[in-house]
Design a protein that fits this description.
With 307 residues, this protein is mainly α. The protein folds into three domains: 128 residues, Serine Threonine Protein Phosphatase 5, Tetratricopeptide repeat (Alpha Horseshoe); 57 residues, 5' to 3' exonuclease, C-terminal subdomain (DNA polymerase, domain 1), CATH 1.10.150.20; 69 residues, DNA polymerase, domain 1 (Orthogonal Bundle). The chain is built from 16 helices and no strands. Helix 2 packs antiparallel against helix 3, helix 3 runs antiparallel to helix 4 and helix 4 runs antiparallel to helix 5.
């Protein structure tokens, strides 16, 4: 083949000799920092003889010149060839990490470590990928949390609710969307003049936003609230009072049944509840509520109030 210039377009599927000529040219260009010319020469070498080595050099030069998408495609093809260079996997993993494709990057590095568990670059890269993944996750979590917190601070007055529903929420000191997530259906219904119609209206408004009443009052949240309440009570009541069983309060049958339904076993558990939670239990009335207030008061305690 007489013409081995960069403009030559090779049609032969395999021409190792021509490929070697282009490879030699490419290395000379690269040594002189003529990287664009080197890339074209490496491409011609790959056209003449498509091997893992020629493809790797094309990818490496594309990577060097900042053609990330082209470099990733070339590296990927290289890794599928027989006997690909280890650096094809590692260099591709770096590009994938930069593109936030952490799972794919990790899989490539794991392949290297499976072949050589002590490969120094692979061991370093796998830690870097995991650190980047954690950092991105933390940033995304913080962003979502910030957006969520901002939404929870929205005043309920901004939502399309009936006058009755708004007035009831105002009287209950429920000012924000977040307040609604910290109250249960039974608490809402226990308030005077708050009926099923208003409840349905509020639930529909929350559902439209992917939220629900009492969303933050799941068991984990309640345990947290209970812990905070009990911590505040420590030192204000006699030792051992918070751990006493509610049976020691000598409550009436109706009160005891209500506490059983709510799973309240200790005096501390009871003090961590609100009036509305108790009033939401069927057949629990004002008389039982007064009784509980009196029994707790005897020990210097009271039911929790909504903040």
């Amino acid at each position: 083949m007489s013409n081995t210039g960069l403009d030559t377009v090779l049609t032969a599927t395999t021409d190792p000799a021509a490929s070697q000529v282009f490879m030699k040219q490419a290395k000379a260009f690269e040594a002189d920092a003529k990287f664009f010319e080197a890339l074209e020469a490496y491409k011609n070498a790959a056209k003449a003889n498509r091997t893992a080595t020629t493809l790797f050099n094309v990818a490496r030069m594309q990577d060097h010149l900042g053609y990330d998408d082209d470099a990733m495609r070339s590296y990927e093809e290289c890794t599928r060839m027989p006997s690909p260079p280890v650096n094809a996997f590692l260099n591709l993993s770096v590009l994938l990490e930069d593109a936030a494709q952490f799972t794919r990057a990790s899989k490539l590095i794991q392949k290297v470590l499976e072949a050589n568990p002590n490969h120094p670059r692979a061991k370093l890269f796998i830690r870097d990928v995991q650190a980047s993944k954690n950092m991105l996750y933390d940033e995304e979590l913080a962003r979502l949390k910030g957006r969520e917190e901002a939404m929870f601070e929205l005043p309920v007055a901004e939502f399309e609710l009936s006058i009755r529903a708004r007035n009831c929420l105002k009287k209950m000191n429920i000012r924000t969307l977040g307040d609604l997530l910290r109250i249960s259906e039974s608490e809402l219904l226990s308030y005077k003049n708050f009926g099923e119609t208003s409840l349905v209206e509020i639930k529909q408004m929350l559902t439209a936003r992917g939220l629900r009443l009492g969303q933050q009052l799941d068991r984990g949240h309640y345990d947290k609230v209970r812990g905070e309440v009990l911590e505040k009570m420590k030192g204000t009541v006699a030792d051992g009072v918070l751990g006493m069983t509610v049976g020691t309060l000598n409550l009436g049958i109706r009160s005891r049944k209500a506490l059983q339904l709510l799973g309240i076993q200790t005096v501390g558990d009871l003090a961590a509840r609100t009036e509305a939670e108790l009033m939401g239990v069927k057949n629990f009335g004002a008389t039982s509520l007064v009784e509980i207030h009196e029994r707790l008061g005897e020990h210097g305690l009271a039911l929790r109030t909504l903040e």
